[in-house]
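Lab meeting, item 3. Inverse folding demo.
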């Protein structure tokens, strides 16, 4: 007769323990979320202060525009990145032609494929690919370089000698990214357009006159300028994020590696987000200018 009473007495205790465990899990989750939000807000504040320091250093042209500071960065960001951007742009244009031609041929409109390929490359794919490729190639390098200087206390040594590392190190790199990425975007766009043209006209044998006619009909100055403006924002975001991650990396080789990874991931997300926002803004402005009549099938 004693066993049922023990079981009955144990059931409420198990229920209470289960409820207490759920309560503790909810409290722990709330603490984790609160800590994460606090760190996010703190990181945003620190990044905003860093961006303000960079912007305040721009007027000091004599400091960051010295030929031994700005020209090596222009060469590294721009000249050495041309082969990668050219190959990437050409392959993207070819891929679009391979994928799109059978679809347009099925409806007898293969001549209009030129407008679709070129507007896709010039308006969105060219700037985004240039930004992403440079985020992986240039952004990681900037973060690793500045992170190594922080770990080896070179930044502290510059401050001890009354030299501002942001004006000397960060501003030239950010300016190089902003200046060179539009040029690299033009290279990527040209190679993408040529890649699509080679496949569509010389591989599939589409009508050349229709290809060029619909290309010039759809791709105008506004679309080209829209892509170049996007690339400027992509370059600025990538340069600022990479330098910020390098300046604030944790000590040791592991900290430098983590800062490099975080720089690429954050730059990639920033480029995608900026591309989405600016695409919507560009569509709205285009509807105001052209009255919503821009279409490859008009």
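The presenter then showed the designed sequence:
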């Amino acid at each position: 007769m004693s066993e049922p009473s023990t079981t009955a007495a144990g059931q409420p205790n198990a229920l209470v323990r289960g409820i207490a465990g759920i309560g503790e899990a909810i409290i722990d989750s709330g603490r984790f979320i609160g800590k994460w939000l606090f760190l996010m807000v703190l990181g945003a504040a620190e990044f905003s202060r860093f961006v303000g320091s960079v912007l305040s250093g721009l007027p000091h042209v004599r400091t960051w525009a010295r030929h031994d500071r700005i020209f090596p960065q222009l060469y590294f960001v721009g000249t050495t990145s041309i082969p990668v951007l050219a190959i990437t742009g050409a392959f993207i244009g070819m891929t679009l032609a391979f994928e799109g031609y059978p679809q347009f041929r099925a409806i007898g409109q293969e001549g209009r494929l030129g407008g679709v390929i070129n507007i896709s490359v010039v308006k969105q794919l060219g700037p985004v690919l240039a930004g992403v490729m440079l985020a992986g190639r240039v952004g990681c390098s900037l973060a690793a370089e500045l992170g190594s200087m922080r770990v080896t206390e070179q930044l502290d040594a510059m401050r001890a000698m009354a030299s501002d590392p942001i004006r000397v190190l960060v501003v030239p790199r950010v300016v190089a990214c902003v200046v060179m990425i539009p040029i690299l975007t033009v290279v990527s766009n040209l190679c993408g357009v040529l890649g699509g043209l080679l496949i569509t006209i010389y591989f599939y044998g589409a009508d050349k006159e229709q290809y060029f006619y619909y290309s010039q009909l759809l791709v105008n100055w506004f679309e080209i300028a829209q892509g170049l403006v996007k690339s400027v924002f992509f370059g600025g975001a990538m340069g600022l994020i990479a330098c910020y991650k390098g300046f604030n990396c944790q000590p040791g080789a592991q900290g430098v590696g983590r800062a490099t990874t975080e720089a690429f991931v954050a730059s990639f997300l920033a480029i995608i987000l900026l591309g989405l926002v600016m695409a919507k803004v560009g569509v709205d402005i285009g509807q105001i200018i052209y009255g919503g009549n821009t279409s490859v099938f008009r």
